[in-house]
Amino acid sequence: MSAVAVPRIAAPARSSRKRRGRFSPTQGALYAVLAIIAVVYISPFLIQVVTSVKTEPDAATNPMSMIPNPVSFAALNKLLLNSDFPHWFLISAVVSVCVMLGRVLFDSAAGYALARLHFRGRNLVFGALIGIMAVPGVALLIPRFLVLRQVGLYDTLPGIILPFFADAAGVFIMKNFFEGIPVAVEESARVDGANIFRTYWSVVLPMARPALVTILIMSFQGSWNELQQFIVSAQRPELINLTKGVALLISGQLGQGTQYPLKLAAATLMTIPVAIIFFIFQKRIMNNATGAVKE
Amino acid sequence: MRKNLGKVWGAAAITLAVTLALAGCSKTTPSTTTAPPAPAPSTTAAPTTTAAPTTTGAPTSSAAPLTILFGSSGDAETNAIKAAAAAWTAKSGIPVTVTPATNMDQELAQGFASGKPADVFYISPGALAANADAGNLWAYGDMLPNKADFYPALVADYTYKGKFYAAPKDYGTLQLIINDDLWSKAGLTAADYPKTWDDLHNVAKKLTSGNVTGLVIGGQYERLGAFMVANGSNLMSVDQTKVTATDQSNVDALNFAKSMLADGSMKFAADISTGWGGEAFIKQLCAMTIEGNWISGAMKADAPNVKFTVVPMPASPTTGKQGTLEFSNGWGIAADSPNQQGALSLVEFLTTTEQQIAFAKAFGPTPSLQSGTAQFNSEFPAMKPFADGVAYAQGVPTIKGASTVLGDLNNQLAQLAKSDPAAILASTQTELQALLG
Amino acid sequence: MAMAPARRTTRGGIRKGEALSGWILSAPVLIALFVFLFLPILMTAWVSVSDYNGHGSPLSGKFSFVGADNYVAITSGGGLQEKIFGWSLRNTLWYVVLVVPIVTALSLFLAVIVNGRVLRGRGFFRTAFYFPSVTSSVAIIALWMFLFNASGVVNKMLSWIGIHGPVWFNDPQGIFTALLSGLGLKEAPAALANHGFLGVSWWSWIGGPSWAMTALMLQAIFCTSGTFMLLFIAGLQNLSPEVDEAAIVDGATAWQRFWHVTLPQLKPVLFTVVTLGIIGAWQMFDQVFSSTKGGPGNTTYTLAYRAYSASMIDGYWGQGMAVAFILFGIIILFTILQRFWLRDRPDMPRPPKKTKGVVPS
Q: Of B70, B364, C135, C243, whose CA is between 20 and 30 Å from B290?
């Protein structure tokens, strides 16, 4: 995994290395168990991809077959050329990009303030962050709609995006990062006369790149996979994103019948961006997950 | 840091308490300070828009563009409504945005709560009472010039506490739909079209073979209720002042359905992984289904090669009468619409005989006007049983809260094969009774 | 953080203007938190004790305070609202009670074998088990409805071993009811069938999750076991190898070492996983919204989904918000319990540790 983890793994590895030569029955069994579980975890995705290029009768009668007979791009065609799917995709992309940029900026600013600046009420702010982090989002689903309508943001793109900035976890990540790097560089900038915002912008932010990448990845995953926020903050068809559109598609609200190839093609296409990001940043994401969930 | 967590929690608790108190004092501020006045689509418009929207008084009027929100059965319906709206815009000069809903109930509710509802929308009789009480609807019905031409039963559907709220858009009755090929393949002819429930049961048994089930219907009151009506009852009396769910005729009707489920000659759509009877019919997983005229649009779109015949519902052996349920949709106009005058004119246009026949051609609904029926029957002789059904049809309960009760009833009916019909109806009796107070 | 006051006294000069800058820099997040997390709590509290009916703003002055009416309506009176609330509570409880232990055990098991001696392919297996956790639950539900349809993949596989699978997403029968009926107990004992709590008979309370809910539970397990597995792996890698090696020297078997050496040391992680699992499980919403909408037979209503459907679909806004507020209370209670336990245990993993993944490597 990470550099931190490697030395620790080395210890148990040492004792096993002695026995590396023989392939014990226990180890064989272990591999077998692992392989079976891996099939359980992977095959659903393979079925999903294969089914999305099947014809509907083929999908219904041979759900397990890994070979489409015949191969049909009808579902993909319909999705990409003759449905709102591309628009949903666009909305998801726009929202994700805005959320990523906004969070990078605001999380790092607040994290920096909490880590480095000494101001009256800082403990209060920090306490409020921790307190509010415990608030379960789903219980606030409907009231968030009421608040959005109250402040006039309901059914607008900003109304979808702004609530994503209520991201206490990201502030903590940034705060902890800033506390972990030496203060000397920025202090010298400050002594040279740069004001706080300038120091933050041109000295601190560039140093924080690793943490910012983490925020970017987490923001992308969070906003791309988010459903509830889109349900309550807008109703116009032009503001439907992927999760909401596909959720309505699969629950039959769009009058689509079973149409498994269509639904699974939609599921496949919406998974592709997350999968790409995942495989590029695999190590970092798996490390983030370990940390982020610990809140 | 670790030892501090306790302190931090203390601080958090204090902060929450303080902010709670602060926010408590200024709870109204968000509405006055942060909220710009709701950017109603009328910002460009005439001074009359400033008049408070109203549920009864003089309609608001402006040049504000209109929106139509509707639950679409498919592209055919969406395109037909778009075409009609475009035709009206060409006449009136007022632009209309046509929005097929993705989640109709929720979007309507969000619209009303947000103060920016669609101006014109589909409304079902079941949703009328609650929305009328909440002040969401403009009761414009009495201003319609062709009010007397609507079927009286439909006008009653949209009348609540003495006010006629919405123009009936169309109606549909349930009838028996038969797949011609599977019918003749089973050695049956037109002479075998079922006249009674026993006939229905017999042909269903004959038609059931392989993966084809004789009869597939939605496992819900909105289909099974047709048998209750034929048996001489329904969940409520026609004037909806008395709950009659536990009538023996209703229990018998469900027991008949249960007997068909028991021998497999009838199945519920969900039990063969289809969404509704029409889908099973389109996929030829059944030889018969019980559906309304909307199935013709679906057949045209998804199964143009499957030939089918619509025959009248078979009669109950007890009463010797036919029975069916009638469904309708109406055009609601929002109390908060800034351009009610325009919305009314649009609805008048949409409910003319001419326009209703155009809709019928596009996606099959039966006109809500008495003057439209004759033309409908001559244009679509094969669909005649749907129109004739109105003579012996009843509506579903529409009192406030009834749709939730029906949802609960449907949950139980889905398991009819394994349940006791009397017990199901008893719980519905209690729940409906509670609504009457 | 604890060192902050000390630092302030040593360098005062360049601290000028920090108060204003500090507030300015934290303002965007603070405002977002206040408006989108805090105000909604107040809104929930107010609407749940008001007669708000969904027309216009709940703050418009048209609506009045009705005391505990909404809470009373969903918890008593024998009406439909009580019954659906009862089902929602019952379903959510079963979901929590079954998903949390299963996902904890499974993810611990995965972590142990992936972290074990098998060196070849461990990265591959880890990725395979974790991948479902990064995909959207909507996409997985689309897949699930295909896999679990009446003649779908799962039922085909069950038929290989002679089992006639249920019509998953359309079968409201509780799995324990099904089990009992398989054992010959087909009729509910009158004492259990005729009495109940919150409008749901005791027989239904103990019937277990329906087949439909079971399918959703399997989806949740599939989608969250990877995340928890990573947590356990991190915990395993923080263990001191010396203790384990000493146990090897003492001749302990692998199972003994796991049970008596590894597991006790993992207690803090175990605790974190369980509480996170509980908090997450209470919030189950997305899957129900995308598939069953509460059916069949009310058996997939969860508290979170009921709060939504009562307000936005059925129009009972006050009652829906009462459900939301009760759910809010339950989750806050578990969160406070978790924090309370963490506070007393210096060896517990806690938020600051998350920097580990962020430290430049």
A: B70
Are residue A152 and residue A238 in the same domain, yes or no?
yes
- The answer to whether residues A98 and A208 belong to one domain is yes
Taken in order C331, C333, C339, C344, the sign of the CA dihedral is negative
Give how far the C-alpha of residue B105 lies from the chain's centroid of Cα atoms, to the nearest Å: 11
CB A172 within 8 A of CB C42: no
Q: Which helix (H) or strand (E) holds B120?
A: strand B120-123
Residue C7 lies in a domain: no
SS (H, E, C) C178-192: HHHHHCCCCCCCHHH
What number is the average pLDDT over the span B399-408?
85
Please, which residues 23-82 of chain C have a Cβ atom closer than 8 Å to chain B? 34-35, 38-39, 42, 46, 53-57, 59, 78-80
> Which letter, b or e, does each residue of C70-92 get, where b requires 16 or more Cβ atoms within 10 Å of its Cβ?
bbebbbeeebbbbbbbbbbbbbb
What CA–CA distance (Å, rounded) separates A250 from C148?
A: 14
**E strand or H helix at B161:** none
A69: confidence class by pLDDT, cuts 50, 70, 90: confident
Residues B303 and B345 in one domain: no
Q: Which of A257, A273, A289 is the last residue of a domain?
A: A257
CB B177 within 8 A of CB B288: yes
The DSSP output letter for B241 is S
The 10 Å CB-count burial string (b at 16+, else e) for B258-284 is bebbeeebbbbbbbbbbbbbbbbbbbe
pLDDT > 90? residue B205: yes
Could you tell me which chain B residue has the CA closest to the CA of C310?
B404
pLDDT score for A256: 55
Residues A63 and C156: their CA atoms lie apart, in Å, by 9
The whole-angstrom separation of Cα C38 and Cα C318 is 19
Within 112-171 of A, beta carbons closer than 8 Å to C belong to 112-114, 117-122, 125-126, 128-129, 132, 134-147, 149-151, 162-163, 165-168, 171
- Any chains having at least 3 CB pairs less than 8 A from chain C are A, B
| C234 domain residue, yes or no | yes
Measured between alpha carbons, how far is A121 from B43 in angstroms, rounded to an integer?
A: 43
Judge whether A255 is closer than 8 Å to chain B, CB to CB: yes
Are C236 and C266 spatial neighbours (Cβ–Cβ below 8 Å)? yes
What pTM, to 2 d.p., does this model score? 0.83
Please answer yes or no on whether C343 and B6 come within 8 Å at the CB atom.
yes
* Residue of chain B nearest C336, judged by CA positions: B9
B13 falls within a domain: no
- The answer to whether B15 contacts A255, with C-beta atoms less than 8 Å apart, is no
Kindly determine whether residue C138 and residue A113, on different chains, have CB atoms separated by under 8 Å: no
Write down the H helix ranges in B97-151. 104-114, 125-133
A270/C40 Cβ within 8 A: no
Neighbours of chain B (3+ CB pairs under 8 A): A, C
Number of domains in chain B: 2
- Looking at the complex, does the CB of residue A118 fall below 8 Å from at least one CB of chain B? no
Residue C121, chain B, CB below 8 Å: the answer is: no
Number of Cβ within a 10 Å radius of residue B174:
28
CATH number reported for the structural domain that contains residue C270 in this entry: 1.10.3720.10
Does this complex have an ipTM over 0.90? no
